[in-house]
TrEMBL record:
<dbReference type="InterPro" id="IPR000092">
    <property type="entry name" value="Polyprenyl_synt"/>
</dbReference>
<dbReference type="GO" id="GO:0008299">
    <property type="term" value="P:isoprenoid biosynthetic process"/>
</dbReference>
<dbReference type="GO" id="GO:0046872">
    <property type="term" value="F:metal ion binding"/>
</dbReference>
<keyword id="KW-0808">Transferase</keyword>
<dbReference type="InterPro" id="IPR033749">
    <property type="entry name" value="Polyprenyl_synt_CS"/>
</dbReference>
<comment type="similarity">
    <text>Belongs to the FPP/GGPP synthase family.</text>
</comment>
<keyword id="KW-0479">Metal-binding</keyword>
<keyword id="KW-0460">Magnesium</keyword>
<protein>
    <submittedName>
        <fullName>Heptaprenyl diphosphate synthase</fullName>
    </submittedName>
</protein>
<dbReference type="GO" id="GO:0004659">
    <property type="term" value="F:prenyltransferase activity"/>
</dbReference>
<dbReference type="Pfam" id="PF00348">
    <property type="entry name" value="polyprenyl_synt"/>
</dbReference>
<dbReference type="InterPro" id="IPR008949">
    <property type="entry name" value="Isoprenoid_synthase_dom_sf"/>
</dbReference>
Length: 325
């Protein structure tokens, strides 16, 4: 598998984003800067700024404003993860103790808010900031809807695939979509190009979250940076489990009971359900759905003039599908 983030072109430009992020976060109250910088140094794929950079490269654009927008979108993502960890009561993020675990929920919430508001304020300095902030505001509203939908669906075995898609579209796909769209927005390229990049990002975002949810079942703790099967154990019913519950099988009522009683035997109950998900072919079905989104993302790229950067974006779609972390 080719990791596009290691491509010389992207690696160089992402290093500039990383340096900008570190400088940006170090400028502020010492405690908040320490926590924010710690979150940043814990790692992360930096896919969102990579997509901003790639879509901008399509128009042969790369300057300080591109770095700013790419960096601020990564910080908006970081802020959402800090709040997400509070809601999920997660102990680890990328192998590092979460802020709310190290301190309190209130501390973590304020650190997340600080990062978000500071990032939004910084975007007033870039050209076409009205349009950029409008897109981000609309997306942030939908992200909140997705988070609320997730909180309201915990341990709910009756939810549908449509419910799941609603949730992950808002929690993940829409932000990735506007990151991909941003190059066309900043180049003022027009609605057709904007829509093509947006749809590319939307399908990659859906595939990315589905893959993340699949890896929660399949990978080791060290690979995903959090305990495996943790999502299900904490009540988050993701696509493989929903696909299982859509089937007719002998143990269905027992599975419903275990979920509704919130897994009285903990990991043992979760392991039992995981074995049924595998037996009934739901991991393979999830892979097929992911692959369909990947193909739709690639198909959208045919609407754009073929350039070296669109070839790299096609490779990016493959990377999302094939990644193991």
């Amino acid at each position: 598998m080719k990791n596009i983030l290691q491509h010389a072109f992207l690696k160089k430009r992402l290093s500039q984003v990383e340096a900008y992020l570190m400088d940006f976060l170090s400028d502020g109250p010492a405690f908040i800067s320490e926590q924010a910088s710690g979150n940043l140094s814990a790692g992360g794929k930096r896919l969102r700024p990579a997509f901003v950079i790639m879509s901008s490269e399509y128009y042969n654009r790369f300057d300080d404003n591109i770095i700013k927008v790419a960096s601020m979108l990564e910080l908006i993502h970081m802020s959402s993860l800090i709040h997400d960890d509070i809601n999920d009561n997660a102990d680890l993020r990328r192998g590092r103790q979460t802020i709310h675990t190290a301190f309190t929920n209130d501390v973590a919430a304020h650190v997340g808010d600080y990062i978000l508001i500071k990032a939004l304020r910084h975007l007033f300095e870039v050209p076409n900031h009205e349009r950029i902030l409008d897109l981000i505001a609309d997306t942030a509203v939908e992200m909140c809807k997705g988070e609320i939908a997730q909180l309201n669906s915990m341990f709910d075995w009756e939810q549908s695939v449509a419910d799941y898609n609603y949730r992950i579209e808002r929690k993940t796909a829409l932000l990735i979509a506007i990151c991909c769209q941003m190059g066309a927005v900043m180049a003022e390229a027009g609605a057709s190009d904007e829509n093509a990049f947006y749809q590319y990002g939307y399908h990659l975002g859906m595939a990315f979250q589905m893959k993340d949810d699949l890896l929660d079942f399949l990978n080791s703790d060290a690979e995903v940076g959090k305990p495996t099967g943790k999502d299900l154990e904490t009540g988050l019913i993701n696509l493989p489990t929903i696909l299982l519950l859509n089937k007719d099988f002998a143990e269905k009522e027992h599975v419903r009971h275990l979920i509704s009683t919130q897994f009285p035997n903990g990991e043992k109950d979760v392991g039992y359900i995981v074995s049924l998900i595998k037996r009934e072919g739901c991991f393979a079905e999830t892979e097929k759905i992911i692959l369909n989104h990947i193909q739709q993302a690639k198909d959208v790229l045919t609407q754009l003039e073929r350039k070296p950067i669109t070839d790299l974006m096609r490779s990016g779609a493959d990377f999302i599908y094939e990644r193991a972390y």
